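All the exercises in this workshop are built on plain-text protein records. A record pairs a protein's sequence with a compact description of its fold. Backbone structure tokens are a discrete shorthand for how the chain folds in space. Once this layout is familiar, the rest of the handout is easier to follow. As an example, a complete record with its sequence and its structure tokens follows.
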Amino acid sequence: QVQLVESGGGLVQPGGSLRLSCAASGRTFGTYAMGWFRQAPGKEREFVAAISWSGGNIYYADFVKGRFTISRDNAKKTVYLQMNSLKPEDTAVYYCAADWARGSAAASRGSWGDYWGQGTQVTVSS
């Protein structure tokens, strides 16, 4: 069992930065691939980024490449999403998820995530 709690969201101006954190409980965090997803009002949830259990494999949605960075610290049981050059269209609730079997490469293909956090709101507005 893994419980996930996101934090770090808030209101930021266009061009600004935020760092989201996802703290996990459970002894097996280091065996899970982790992902970040987001859902804007009136839209479906979409994949943002994923990282393998070791951190050796990382994947991004095209719309965040070069702006967002996913990382993890297994000793702290935490995964991060550094978001730079934020745009108004990045406004959404951001969720982290953990998946044991499907791996980070599958995160963008749907039906992914054994465990989900409650989400943290990110609003990009002037």
